[in-house]
Amino acid sequence: MYDYYLGGKTNYVVDREAAQEVIRVFPAIETVAKVNRAYMHRAVRYLARQGIRQFIDVGTGIPTSPNLHDVAQEVAPDCRVVYVDNDPIVLVYADELLDGTPEGRTAYVQANATKPDEVWAAVRERNILDPELPVALSLHALMHFVTDSQEPYEIVRSLLEPLPPGSYLSLSHCTGEFDPEAWQAIIDTYAEAGTSVQVRGRTEVRRFFDGLELVDPGVVLAHQWHPQPGSGPGVLSERQVSLYAGVARKP
Prior knowledge:
- Pfam families: Methyltransf_19 (PF04672).
- InterPro entries: SAM-dependent_MTases_sf, SAM_dep_MeTrfase_SAV2177_type.
- By secondary structure, this protein is of the alpha/beta class.
- It has helices at residues 2-5, 13-25, 29-49, 68-75, 88-92, 116-126, 152-160, 180-192, 202-206, 238-241; strands at residues 54-58, 80-85, 105-110, 136-140, 168-174, 213-214, 220-221, 243-249.
- The longest helix is centred in the first third of the chain and has 21 residues, at 29-49.
- It is globular.
């Protein structure tokens, strides 16, 4: 469905039907997806410019160019990136995630984000990241698919725990604060398609960064995080964005 919102072609009839129903109740969902993608590009570029050379992208989804490694390796060709997802469809298209620079390395592993031990076991098995050097953990548009019953904050803490000081977390998360009725309809539509969704307010999203040092301007609507001309849709309302984002450093 995310691929469909972005105008991609890697989706099926069932995806398109469900996505069209979401668009019917909340036409701005396509803007939300584009804002998220633009935020990812800016955040990764920022992190690479801070000297980060290792990235783990959990919940990468269907490849959409430019991918995270394209952005990071454009800044620093020696960046290493490990993509993580548990969707077998992503595996089919994983070759597109592995076309990095000769100086860097890219890899794809299958693991479930709700099982941090499984994620780390898969990442370590590939042996392309140096455990002594900082890593940027990317959880973009992922945690709203993890409900409170699955202990989302503990999941994020467990994913961060093995990372050395100087590592970063970049996270984006949908919110229903600006149109609760529409987002409830979206949640219902996803549920009918077999996917649980739990949107959260700014305070709840801020909790994912507990114990970390937030980069200015903190947790904000995604288009407000280090905005750059031409990096996404133009003038937007809070309702159209409906996505919080932030970057924080592990002390």
